[in-house]
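Hi everyone,

Forwarding the result from last night's run.
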Amino acid sequence: MRSLVCGLACGLLWVSACGGDTTSEVRIGDVGAKLAIVTSRDSMNMSGAINTVAIPSLKVNAGIDATVDPDTVLHVIGGKLYLLNRFTNTLRIYDPTSFAAPTEIKVTSDSGKMTMYPQDFVIAKDKIFISFNGNTADTAVGIIDVAQPSAHVTRYVNVANAAADKDGGPDPAALYVCNDKVYVALSDLDMNYQPTGAGRVAVIDATTETSTGVIQLTKENPGHIVQAADDCTQALVGSGPLGAAPTDTNAGIDAVDLTAKTATSMFTSTQIGGSVASIEVALPTLAYAVVLFNPVTTSGGYINLASSKVVAFNPSKKTVIGDASGVAGYIPFARVSGSGQLFIGVDVYATLPDKGTLTGGLYVGKADGTNITDGATGISLGQSPVAIDFN
């Protein structure tokens, strides 16, 4: 097992930012959304902030709350903004109309059990399910009761290790919920952060709080899972290695049949353009993938994927449409609002050997499969963008 926090320094941090309600994920945000809520980080990666961007005027209100972590995950669920601080292990609940006086929950266990490196969360059956990337199998996914958040993490779901993974932890990452089933992407890495084989998706019954099985994937180190259809039968999983060059066998996109519990390769690394950090499905015929590529070996011998871009594809036809952005040093997200606008965040890490051609900031354009960054300048938030959702 290992922490994905190491990826922030390496320029390879999987980001999961997909809005949802208590039973099924909202795939492209609230259709009536008037606000993009964007978190950001300072240049030293020491602190972060909440910012808003009005839709459709794109007017920025920066630094609304400058007390959040530089590494955050946020979901708008049931009219509330839930923000996970992944450095300080806290979950904040905001009224997204005022952002005043948020409720803060410590993502810890009063029983003394582990709560290491929280990665993502969903809400199902009035419970907050949180993946802990540094925990052992018996505490891989923690549960906080919505009605009693002050009790912190009160119980866990045991998620079995892969047979080849001997370090004790399945490395859970992104979560997806639909029809009271919680799906957990499992990276199955060893103590040296290397894949022990193709990743898996664990299936958790939110009612009984038990793992009911796993789905074997075809690619390594899955970092993101999203809904792929108008029901709860299909999902897409983006994968790719940390500290290794993407290949056709270890990176790309898997199509997952949630009913049959099987996975098949939709795109290889060559076809989609690299390791897949995140996926956003806008329509059955239009989706976006943030891909990482350009392996560069650092002075310490670590392979860093030094470049990223957004690629548009048609999930129904299983065809690549083309680049939806220019090349950047790091792209933490590509999300589509309910009004059909594509929002791309661009970060420029000072340590990256290839910072790309795009300047930092937020790029916004029509989600139609075309490149929205051509000739455009990023909207400044005052800090580098990290995560986004819509309200």
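Helices lie at 6-10, 269-272.

Cheers,
N.
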